[in-house]
Amino acid sequence: MRAEDPRPVRLADYRPSDFLIDEVHLDFDLEPSATRVTATLKMRPNPAGDAGAALSLDGDELKLISAAIDGAPLAADELDVSPSNLRIANPPRGPFELTIVTEIDPAANTRLMGLYRSNASYTTQCEAEGFRRITYFLDRPDVLAVYTTRVAGPKDETPVLLSNGNLVEQGELDGGRHFAVWHDPHPKPSYLFALVAGDLGVVEDSFTTVGGRGVALKVFVEHGKEDRALHAMESIKASMKWDEEVFGREYDLDVFMVVAVSHFNMGAMENKGLNVFNDKYVLASPETATDGDYANIEAIIAHEYFHNWTGNRITCRDWFQLCLKEGLTVFRDQEFTSDRRSRPVKRISDVRNLRALQFAEDAGPLAHPVRPQIYHEINNFYTPTVYEKGAEVIRMLKVWIGDDAFRAGMDLYFDRHDGEACTIEQFVACFAETSGRDLTQWMRWYGQAGTPEVIARTAYDASARTFTVEATQKTRPTPGQPTKQPVVIPLVLGLVGPDGADVDLKVGGEKAGPVFTFDRETLRVVFEDVAERPVASLFRNFSAPVKLSSDLTNDDLLFLAARDSDPFNRWQALQTVALRHLVQSTDAVREGRSIAEEPRIAEAVGRAFAPDETDCAYAAQVASLPSEGDVAREIGENVDPEAIHRARSELKGRLRDSLGDALEAAFERLAETGPYSPDPASAGRRALKVAALDLLAAGGARTGVERAHGLYISAGNMTDRVMSLQVLSLSATPEREEALADFAQRYGDDPLLMDKWFLIQASSPLPDTLDRVEALMAAPTFDMKNPNRVRSLIGAFGAANPTQFNRPDGRGYAFVAGVAAELNTSNPQVAARLLGSFRTWRALEPTRRAKAEHALRALASTADLSPDVADIVRRALA
Ligand code: PHE
Ligand code: ZN
């Protein structure tokens, strides 16, 4: 690790920029290894800044060719330049024009930030701080400028030349070159700049906005993959329409473009008018994509499109405010999906994901507030906390102040702040105004890290006809925050009477609820006129991101699982029973005792496979047990992943034994009949079929494995093929090897399908998995320079394989840390992300904990760690 701690960035130190940039004129002369960039910046001192300040521009690995002010070249003694900074001590004190020429090497750019090559194309990634790898700039989100971009390149290699905004000019140049000029009238921060050039295929369509603007829609993909872009195109149109209908937001340029690229550090990027996507989240056809792929593409297209208003029109003042755009935009894409598909199923899968990633992060050494106060490397704050918990905070706000005040607050926010770079305070103030509520305490959700733990007790008093709910909240210390204060928790609850109907809620002689404000350590609500003992259904629809434990008995929970009118809590109730059982079973495994019987779990799971079940997507969620990670989090400390795996496998085996016939019948009944369609109902049937198959094949049971193999071979769609392969991968059988070989044979040419093949093998709990993963790194289809390959093999091994990553011999830790060390220089961002699998290392039992620590310490002592990797390692070990 580097000797001294690099200086952190603190929210408290925010100061407005000393200079503003009103216009940016960029001229790119594309050459693979020596691209010339001429930037002409119309600048002026910022009245809100420091009047006599020097002009200090950000750079990153830049080579300056020349600099001039108002046309006069700057002499060497007038500027101070390094690859990471350009400083002009005495710039003009009025408006001026600064011209900077830099030379950059896209072909050598393996970090995939700034301008880089992916296959034969050029593309950019500027969020968060990539623009400074293109030219020296005030690379901060509160400097908004109008951009005009001229791109010139060879006609044969780069027939397509794109940038933000509208195309204003194009023409021929000498030497087989041509150019295009793009103008984006909407002022934007540099992180939203984009350029794409290459030989790409395109799918075109159009959309007419409510206001009558005709918008050309274009999706660019590799030649020959145009038919795989149609689903993305449909998703764009659906997103545009939805944002008009639900948020009143209209698109604002004549063209909206999406480009799919093969090399991308993240999922996708919302550059103004020119979204750049990881091709994994664009390309889909019935032959190549699973139901999950179709759903992801729709959601991510929507997410990036929705950023046009929440992120682009209104952006962030500084990077501490990242959740202002990300939490809000995740909330918006979740709502979009809920409206298009099943709302309860979407909620359940979002909550599963929140718990698996964000609750895990919040409980470990990398915990941080939704709005951090300090960072060393902003790239490491694109986290489940900023995104997913950020979205939960917005969802809670809506529940707490009500739909109307929420919608009015959004309208006010758009009206008031359009064209600005904002803070969370400015956003929240809009809702304080429309709801008339004091949101001071609300801000703790943004400032306080950690998942609040709620303990609820209930009591029925038959003679007084009252039912009391008492809840306490507590948040444990997190790094840098030893003491915590109560947060405002909207507790949505219902009381379910013995007949399954909700009891009318009456408190203090008046009709009450269903939203209760729980903003102190203890909340006590006494419900009146309750004729019979009800069962409390707490946190309906997961009304707050808290960890709940209650005194509800398994009988109560199983009653809710059958009768609660809230579909989320019907699902949750059975999960809670199963989770309690799995925690006890894990103890039993560790202590060498036999595992207790809990036949009622099978009974409840069995209902999901009943012949009259029509909501298959929901039933599939009911039938899916808590994950090994869920059990680990519930246990919390001294975790033995192997014991959890054995306990969970045992439960699956028992479910198979008691439900066998129903599972077989469901599997038969849910077989495909017509041609493939990714619609939610059909996808739900496939999900339920796979849930049945997964149980049938539990523990490598012969008939189940044979069925899985049969489905693999006869599969008429990629979902069946991939899911059956996944089931086969769980046990060591000849069918598994045969199917894996067949898959590689069939799809060896398709990188995205080979990613699924890597991922399935990397997440198998079999003991030889690590050996395989190491061997697969040498496969010709594997490529360390491609983040998707790295994530599908090493990332999946670390994040989706609890037993093998956590091998008791520590090899799993050493392996992942070793790959991170290897990627440290070539792509620090991807390297740092791989280390996310260490986020729960402190909760492990002592032997594994020591091995994990050893791997982290070895990495920490590596020379020349990048800021990205050093930051994660330092915090993980602190
Ligand atoms: N802003 C992108 C999104 O969430 C994510 C991203 C961050 C992409 C940083 C690239 C780099 O939509
Ligand atoms: Zn986003």
Task: Give the beta-strand count.
Answer: 33
Which strand order spans the largest sheet, edge to edge or round the barrel? 6-5-9-3-2-12-15-14
Overall 3D shape: globular
- Radius of gyration (Å): 28 Å
Q: Tell me which ligands are bound.
A: phenylalanine, zinc ion
Number of helices: 26
Structural class: alpha+beta
Q: Please outline the major beta sheet.
A: 8 strands, mixed
Residues in β-strands, percent: 15-25%
Structure, briefly:
With 878 residues, this protein is of the alpha+beta class. Helix content is 40%, strand content 21%.
Secondary structure: elements and pairs:
Blueprint (H helix, E strand, L loop, with lengths): L8 E2 L8 E11 L5 E11 L9 E4 L4 E7 L2 E2 L5 E4 L2 E4 L7 E9 L9 E5 L2 E5 L19 E10 L5 E4 L2 E7 L4 E12 L6 E4 L2 E8 L5 E8 L8 H18 L7 E7 L6 E2 L4 E5 L12 H16 L8 E2 L5 H19 L2 H20 L11 E2 L8 H18 L1 H15 L3 E2 L1 H12 L8 H4 L5 E9 L4 E9 L14 E8 L9 E2 L2 E2 L3 E4 L3 E6 L7 E4 L8 E4 L3 H10 L3 H25 L7 H10 L7 H8 L4 H8 L5 H29 L10 H17 L5 H13 L3 H11 L5 H14 L3 H12 L6 H8 L10 H13 L2 H4 L5 H16 L1 H7 L11 H15 L6 H11 L1
Parallel strand pairs: 2-12, 18-19, 19-21, 22-24, 25-33
Antiparallel strand pairs: 1-23, 2-3, 3-9, 4-8, 5-6, 5-9, 7-8, 10-11, 11-16, 12-15, 13-16, 14-15, 17-18, 20-21, 25-26, 26-31, 27-30, 27-32, 28-29
Helix pairs in contact: 1-2, 2-3, 3-4, 3-5, 4-5, 5-6, 6-7, 9-10, 10-14, 11-12, 11-14, 12-15, 14-15, 15-16, 15-17, 16-17, 18-19, 19-21, 21-23, 23-24, 23-25, 24-26, 25-26
The site of phenylalanine has 12 residues, from strand 20 and helix 2.
Protein name: Aminopeptidase N
Function: Aminopeptidase N is involved in the degradation of intracellular peptides generated by protein breakdown during normal growth as well as in response to nutrient starvation.
InterPro entries: Aminopeptidase_N-like_N (IPR045357), Aminopeptidase_N-like_N_sf (IPR042097), PepN_Ig-like_sf (IPR038438), Peptidase_M1 (IPR001930), Peptidase_M1_dom (IPR014782), Peptidase_M1_pepN (IPR012779), Peptidase_M1_pepN_C (IPR024601), Peptidase_M1_pepN_C_sf (IPR037144)
